[in-house]
Amino acid sequence: MNVHVLSPGLLSSIQDTGRHGFRHLGVGSAGVMDAYSHAIANLLVGNPVGAPVLEITMAGPRLRIQRTARIALCGADIVARCDGRDLAGWRTIDLPAGSELTIGHCRRGARAYLAVAGGFTLSPLLGSSSTDLRGGFGGCAGRALASGDVLSVGHSTIDADAIRIASWWIDPAPDLDFGSPAIIRMLPGHDATSPPDAVFAREWRVSVASNRQGLRLEGDAVRPANACERVSEPVAAGTVQLPPDGRPIVLLADAQTHGGYPRIGHAIVADRPRLAQLRPGDALRFVPCTTQQARRLHCEQRQRLARIAFAIGTRLRT
Amino acid sequence: MPYTIETLGEDALLLRFGDAIDAAVNARVHVLSQRIERVRPPWLRDLVPAYASLALFVDADAFDCTLEPLDEARRWLQQQAFTADDAGVAGRFVEIPVSYGGEHGPDLAALATHAGLAEDDVIARHCAIEYRVAMLGFSPGFPYLLGLDPRLAMPRLDTPRTHVPAGSVGIGGAQTGIYPQAGPGGWRIIGRTTLGLFDPLHDPPTLLAPGDRVRFIAA
After folding, report:
1. B100-125, pLDDT tens digit by residue?
2. Predicted pLDDT of residue A317
3. How confident is the model at residue B88 (pLDDT cuts 50, 70, 90)?
4. In this structure, which of A47, A90, A239, A307 has its CB flanked by the most CB atoms within 10 Å?
5. A236 to B8: CB separation less than 8 angstroms, yes or no
6. Are the beta carbons of A232 and B49 separated by less than 8 Å?
7. Can you name the CATH fold of A182-298?
8. Any CB–CB contact under 8 A between A232 and chain B?
9. A178 closest CA partner among A103, A254, A107
10. Quick check: B6 and A190 CB within 8 A?
11. Does B55 touch chain A (CB under 8 A)?
């Protein structure tokens, strides 16, 4: 089955859980920015949790779906219509063959995830179907979607001659709540700031220069305790860097593998979905956190996801 | 202990060997990296060398929720009783043919002037060294090479070029390297190689690996 891209939206790319095991060769992970929404979108259509999906940024694409398809849209609260009907997020939706799916702008949040039953089928590169936009490989021709692209979807046995929207849905709270300011818990980094609590004492705003590589923040500049130059070291998604202008950058899914700026902290994994949903102008506050707390929060999120998976599995079987 | 252990967020350890660009320090990084590689545990996702540090990325989901993944990784590391002594790692030896100057090396003349050398002397000095791949980073397959003749060092461009062709050989400060992909770049470009440095369809996907030895040959 094919999905035809009639218009691509602002930045839509195929992503899965990312590429691992190649950072030593300079290959970053890429992958979905909001892994929680990604997993639930897949569960709602009966896919494996890590299957490739379409990550949509701020404004979505227009797609023609060749055959009957089961879809779900999770993540940002986004406008979506098909054949004159509004399609709500976080639900299982069946569309008849030939449907034109129009995904509009994000009402809240920045990134939505479109999963299609059967999954987008691409040849994985280096163990992943994710698009590495900086490296220009993976996903659909190593780039964001363009008009005229045709995406292949795996086999599915869904049958529908009219749009069918499930009466039940998943509530993503507390993992995704679009609250303002967003509260992001942060582990200590290698480098201290002066004064030590400077990054926690201010409210930050997300800059328009933010992208999948990093969230650039605006606010009163923060100084590192020690401003001398550093040798490039490994960095990762979540690493909070402090460039010379004193405005932190939170590295995200497309993080480079090495960086030379002072590292003042690390946003915790459990708060990564919330970071992924921030848009330019949104407010953010950092709160200090310990490794033990981060682990507990990550495990609690994993357990909520396991319960949701069980509940969806039960619903889809009935 | 020749290194200290720090955390890099909640799913990586950072082993720090020093805080400067130094060939002996970098050699120790590669020794330890290869020792770990040989007994690689299944939960080790990525093993990432840098100039003076080595990161171990852990798959946190491989551990039960009652365990702290980084504590487990630390314990494993101690049990292995790894040392990072100076016993050198040979690394593979790779020769890279380079077409220097002209349209392939638009900054060769400026670099020669800066160094107070003839262009041919710059080429001869660039080809005279056996470099070590300190690390790969910046973009897939981009090698940071150790060993540049200090006479050839030159600051980066004030304004990076918006387009540097794939295969361009550059000098940035005291470092030399090769751009695997076309893209923006601020290093002084002195030549170009036709060898591919990154191909995601190939196994391994990069021409060079950390710890490899490299020599440029004027083509």
Report:
1. 999 999 999 999 999 999 999 999 99
2. 83
3. low
4. A239
5. yes
6. no
7. Cyclophilin (2.40.100)
8. yes
9. A107
10. yes
11. yes
- pLDDT of A104 > 60? The answer is yes
pLDDT at B87 over 70: no
Domain ranges of chain B: 4-80, 93-218
A291: closest chain B residue by CA: B10
- Give tens-digit pLDDT for A171-199: 999 999 899 999 999 999 999 999 999 99
Task: Tell whether B50 lies on the interface with A, counting CB pairs under 8 A.
Answer: yes
Where in chain A are the domains? Answer: 2-172, 182-298
CA–CA dist A199, A129 (Å, integer): 36
CB contact under 8 A, A135 and B198: yes
Query: Count of CB contacts below 8 A, A vs B?
Result: 137
CA distances to A112, A131, A239, A280 from A234, in Å: 29, 21, 10, 27
- Is the minimum CB–CB distance between A22 and chain B shorter than 8 Å? yes
pLDDT tens across A5-63, in order? Answer: 999 999 999 999 999 999 999 999 999 999 999 999 999 999 999 999 999 999 999 99
CATH fold of the domain at B93-218: Cyclophilin (2.40.100)
Q: What is the ipTM of this complex?
A: 0.94
| CA atoms of A201 and A161, how far apart (whole Å) | 56
Q: Which fold has domain B4-80?
A: Gyrase A; domain 2 (3.30.1360)
Q: Report B:191-210 residues touching A (Cβ under 8 A).
A: 198, 200-201, 204-206, 209-210
Nearest chain B residue (CA) to A267: B9
Binary contact (B140, A295; C-beta < 8 A):
no
* pLDDT score recorded for residue B150: 95
Burial B40-67 (b: 16+ CB within 10 A, else e): eeebbbbbbbbbbbbbbbbebeebeeee
Question: Chain A partners of B172 at a C-beta cutoff of 8 Å?
Answer: none
